[in-house]
Amino acid sequence: MAINDTLIDQGITHQTKTIKLQVGLLHQESITLYIVNSPKYEVILEFPWLSIHDPAISWYRGELTHWSQFCIQNCFPVKPQPCLTTSIESPENQVKITIPTHYHDLSEVFSKTKATQLPPHRPWDCTINLLPNAMPPKSKVCPLSRTEDQAMEEYIKEALDSGFIHPSTSPAAAGFFFVALEQLREATIYTKLDLRSAYNLIRIKEGDEWKTAFLTTRGHYEYQ
User: Fold this and answer.
1) Which residue among 28, 93, 160, 215 has the highest number of C-beta atoms inside a 10 angstrom radius?
2) pLDDT given for residue 129 in this prediction
3) 148-206, pLDDT tens digit by residue?
4) Which domains does the chain have, with CATH numbers?
5) Quick one: signal sequence residues (predicted)?
């Protein structure tokens, strides 16, 4: 018998009774294990177990992020219960409550609902012109800190849900990274007005979307 190409002298010596195996906070199951003389490995879960439970692992964060449907139905102590949910959206006129009176005629600018919708294509869509025969480079994935990685995950999810971006097959890709601002340098006057999703108020011209592609640890995307 061998483990990781290392021969085990005695092979299987004993078999345990049925015991409870817990992995992480939620996964529990009854299992029988074979005992071998292997001081280097406490437990070895082989390919058949991995193929059934199909755990997804974030090696960057060092944690399990997802289990198979089999696990959700059979290995979690609390089974998910179906429920009926109702989504209630606040009326748009409620936005005016927090907007100064003299800006009420511009209330659409502050609308969170409208900020998560792409405008239609128009003659002034953003055009990205390249030099003749030029091809934008395809960068490698940029390393991010744990905090930046979490912010990236949230941004990608929100942008996908809003339809601002979609998966890309573009031959080009820019690296995704953050640039920290040092309290806006020497600025002393700040505006209290925040234009929601300002970069998405102008669409990318049809046919130029592939030029906006960017690469992350989560995947390859482009703006619309």
Assistant:
1) 215
2) 92
3) 888 899 989 888 888 888 898 889 899 998 877 665 566 666 666 666 666 667 789 99
4) 2-74 (no CATH), 98-223 (3.10.10.10)
5) none
- All residue ranges of the chain with pLDDT < 50 are 83, 85-89
Sign of the Cα pseudo-torsion (155, 97, 195, 198, in order) = positive
Q: Which residues pair with 172 in a beta bridge?
A: none
- Say how far apart CA 214 and CA 24 lie, in whole Å: 34
**pLDDT score for 97:** 55
- Residue 209: per-residue pLDDT: 92
Name the residue among 148, 167, 153, 164 with its Cα closest to residue 213: 167
Alpha-carbon span 210 to 224, nearest angstrom: 9
| Contact (CB, 8 A) for 35 and 15 | yes
pTM here is 0.49
Decide if 154 contacts 144 (C-beta within 8 A): no
Cα–Cα distance measured from residue 224 to residue 212, given in angstroms and rounded to the nearest whole number: 9
pLDDT confidence of residue 190: 61
Answer for the pair 39, 6: CB distance below 8 angstroms, yes or no.
no
Q: Which residue in 212, 129, 215 sits closest to 223, CA to CA?
A: 212
Distance CA 40, CA 58 (A): 23
Residue 146 backbone dihedrals phi, psi, to 5 degrees: -60, -40
